[in-house]
Structures are given as structure tokens and as C-alpha cells.
Amino acid sequence: MESQHILSVLQQVQNGSLDIHTAYKQLKISPFEDLGYAKIDHHRRIRQGTPEVIYGAGKTAGQMEGIIQSMLSHHSENILVTRLSQKDAAYLSERFALTYDKLSHVGIVNRRERITASGTIVVATGGTSDIPVAEEAALTAEVLGNHVERLYDVGVAGIHRLLSHVDAISKATVIVAVAGMEGALASVIGGLADCPVIAVPTSIGYGANFQGLSALLSMLNSCASGVSVVNIDNGFGAGYLASMINHIGGNEHENTIP
């Protein structure tokens, strides 16, 4: 049991058989809670700064209910559930204070607005059809304590739309560029910004885009410096990484206005 392990470590510190630094390292990898169908890593916040995030696809509503109940015993707010179906969201809403976004299929239990980083994360999309993936990134970043600014439908087919937001781009600490089709948005933003750009290819596009593969390859081959790429439709991964970048080094960015 987790409580028994913690008590044992504290007793060893008390009697002098274990120094506090070694004890801290042990507690960082303290046992998980085994629910049978899931093993809840309650100490992930200690190790990584954020608690576990629940991936909803493939889980039953009952399984997610059990996982959320377990997590609530350690973390009282902002439990993030991604890829959550509307049906399962309805079930969980009857049991928890769930905020659900139908567009991105993101659920947040006991949502609380809090900002823990001074910079701004800009989330931009090539088209309106990319917004579901972008919202997954934006909501993830917001739950993790970031201020997020959205620039939607600013793709290269009408590049003047993007250029009208150069001021916001120049003030960002990190930018998430979400695009399907040929994925050119990330390269264009990368050529304008002085901060890291996280490119998210989406599966939006006609047949030859191969469900996002063409955008992925374009972004991987970007000639703009400072562009990194996550997996196809992985808005969560981009939002999480953007939050990590925004929280580094005291959250200072010379061009950022909180």
C-alpha cells in the first residue's frame, strides 16, 4: 500500500537510517494505486510537475469513473480527460463536476482557472477544420496553468490573415501551429517568430494528404529554424510540450506581456 510505504520511509528518516535526499528520491517513485484495470500514478505530479492525464478513447465510462475517483483523492481539481466521447461525458457529468468541450472531446473535472506561467502560448490553425485538434492543445495548455491566445483560420491560402497577427506572434513565448493539407503554416510562422514553434499536422485534407502524412512530412522537412513536430492530430502532446516550455526559466520572455 502507498501509505505503508510512505510511513516506512518517514520512520527510516526519523531513526536516522535514511537521509532526506534518498527518502525524497524514493517517494518520487512511490507505488501506484492498482485498480485492476488501471494503475494510477499518484506521484507523477512530484516527478513531472503535473498529474496523470486520462486518455478516454478505449476506456469504458465505468473505468474512467474509477480512475477519476482515485485521482480526486490526491488532486482536487483540473483532472484532464482527452478523446472523451459525448456519451461518456454525459455519464461522467452525472457523477462529477465535468466541463466538456464537444469540439475537441476534452473533459475537465473540477476545472479551476489558474495561471502559473507569465508567458503566452499562441495556438494557430490553418483552417477552421483544424480547430478540434487546436482546441485540444489550447485546453490542455490552459489546464496546465498557461495563458492561451487563439488565432484560428489564418492559413497560407490567405496569408494576409496571418500577417495581420504579427504582433501576437512576436509576443508569444511558444506557438502551436496546427494545420492539415500541405502543412505549410508551421514553416511560415517559424519564419516570423523568435520563439519555439510546435507543429501539429492534422488529418484534414483530400486523398493525397494520406490522413495527415503529407502535412507531417512537410513539417518535418521545414526549412524554418526552431520548428518541432508532434504526431498527427496530437493536440494534447503539443499543448503539454508548450506548457513545459512556457514554464522554463522563471517564465521570462522579453517580448511577453502577461
Descriptive overview:
38% of the residues lie in helices and 17% in strands. The strands form three sheets. It has a five-stranded parallel sheet with strand order 8-7-9-10-11, sandwiched between helices. It has a four-stranded mixed sheet with strand order 3-4-6-5, with helices on both faces. The termini are far apart. It is an alpha/beta fold and 258 residues long. The protein contains eleven helices and eleven strands. Helix 1 (2-15) runs antiparallel to helix 2 (20-28). The model is unreliable at 251-258 (pLDDT under 50). It is globular. The longest helix is centred in the N-terminal third of the chain and has 14 residues, at 2-15. A hairpin with a 4-residue loop joins strand 5 (98-101) and strand 6. The chain has three domains: 1-31; 33-109, no CATH class; 120-249, Rossmann fold (3-Layer(aba) Sandwich), CATH 3.40.50.
Query: Unreliable segments (pLDDT under 50, ≥5 consecutive)?
Result: 251-258
Number of helices: 11
Number of β-strand runs: 11
The number of distinct structural domains comes to 3
Strand adjacency order, main sheet: 8-7-9-10-11
Protein structure class? alpha/beta
The sequence of SSEs as H and E is HHEEHEHEHEEEHEHHEHEHEH
Subunit arrangement of the protein:
single chain
Shape: globular
